[in-house]
User: What shape does this take?
Amino acid sequence: MPNFQIVTDSCAHFGAGIVPDNVTVVPNTLIIGGHSYREGVDISDEGACALMAAVPDVPTVLSPSVSDYAAVYERLARDCDGIISIHASREMFDSWSHAQVAAQPYTGRCRVIPIDSQNLSTAQAMLVRLTAQAAAQQPTLDDLVRIARGAVDQLYTVFTVDSVEYVMHHRILPPSQSILGAMLNIKPVLSMEHGRLIAIEKVRTRAQAIERLVEFVMEFTEVIDAAIMQPTTGLTEQGKLLQERLLVDFPGMSFIHTRYGASLAAFIGLDAIGLTVMENPNTRIDHDDY
Assistant: This one.
């Protein structure tokens, strides 16, 4: 059986779940309060979020460099038959473009194929886990690429955000709407659309936010996997209400809870709640924490 390896950046957030053996995570760099930290190496998610809450400046996320990826590819290529490199949305991060450059020397030997997940955090981890599981069953690298790229179109993510400071900074909302939203305590609903976080509507209360998230799941006919995302290890009261509501409306499904990582928190803040679903993928993902 061929030995295929998976590479990703630390925007892929596996939560409390175990990163598969054939997956290598290359850390992003978080700049918080003027100091740099390698995500998941120099600082944990809990530590990063605590620092974000303590400093006034919005943090910056730097993707792994071309040389970072080149070093990983060189090491893995010595003993494997091909590498699938799955990255945070290229519309928001430089990870995919850096991987593209680093992969160029491997066109003729141990091919390295970068894939844009068009997503972030838990959804990116879902795609990585799916690809890692498929790698043990697929006879060719092209088969594995087909499965991974096909699954990209089956991933959907939506968030509601309590405060708008971070989304204002990143211009996810137009400035005029951001200021008005902050004044009126309006909570934007954000969706991943073609690799970008887009404001699709606004709600005024947390109850309305939960209702909108439930409606989001009801739009799909064959949800195979789903996860509730918050920036905390345990479910908040809002998270518990959402989980209870989902279990009532979808009694046959499992809605796990996972925290979203620091890279995503740097874009949407520390008080968002979201859902990621995968609809009808080619290979089912085990229901572990991502």
About this structure: The chain has two domains: 4-152, 155-279. The chain is about 35% helix and 25% strand.
